[in-house]
Amino acid sequence: MPKQKEYSVSLISAGELIDNLYYGPYSREWWLARPISNNTTFCPICLGMKTLTIINNRNFIITVVQENTQDIEDPNYNEFQPGYICQSEGLRNNVCENSSKTITSVYQKAFSNKTKHAGPLVMGFDIPHISEALLSDVHFHPFAFKIENLSVMVFSIGVSNNSDWNYAGEGYKSSFIHDFNHSQSLFFQEFDDDEAIVRIYKEFQEICVFRDANPNLVWKKIGILTKFNGSTLFGLEHNEIKL
Predict the structure, then answer these.
(1) Tell me: the pLDDT tens digits for 64-75?
(2) C-alpha dihedral over 99, 100, 105, 107, to 10 degrees?
(3) Beta-sheet pairing, 143-147 with 91-92
């Protein structure tokens, strides 16, 4: 296996965690899975995070912003996704939807070549002191697991006395991506007061909301993935969730 390229990276600003971004419907977009200490850890892509990386004796500064593009007419525009801006001396690009694209575009202009760079490495997500700084204000570390072909990600956990919720409670949030009405959709699951809620998003728009007293009942209303019970789809039967 080829050795991973190392970069000289300084963290100018760790940025900040915004609840509706990191624990809301599009939270999957704001966490980056990285191999740290032989485990997969989800690091937050903090809003306002700014790094300085030296490549070939030239400084490259990357900043994380909200909105994945400056073009609001772009069909992929989403104000709830991260965007990246790179600048180097007199060069600066427009907002890009991923960090690899932003560093590569500016680097290629600076050196007139076709070299590509991996954005997460250039930003230092795999450097221990940088990942530790990003995680310093994170009180619950999101994690993901598989239910057959579904990749369920859990962002926060609440506690209650409700056995129908497997004793999870308000504040619990999880999501996965699956087809709904023949198109790929995001399923965002949570508890609120006395209800289990599933919100379905397509192309960054909420298209359906289902509510009922517990996960099993709400998933019966949705009427898909019937081979699983609702508690399983919520992620409540995973070992790290069971109380």
Answers:
(1) 999 988 777 877
(2) 100
(3) unpaired
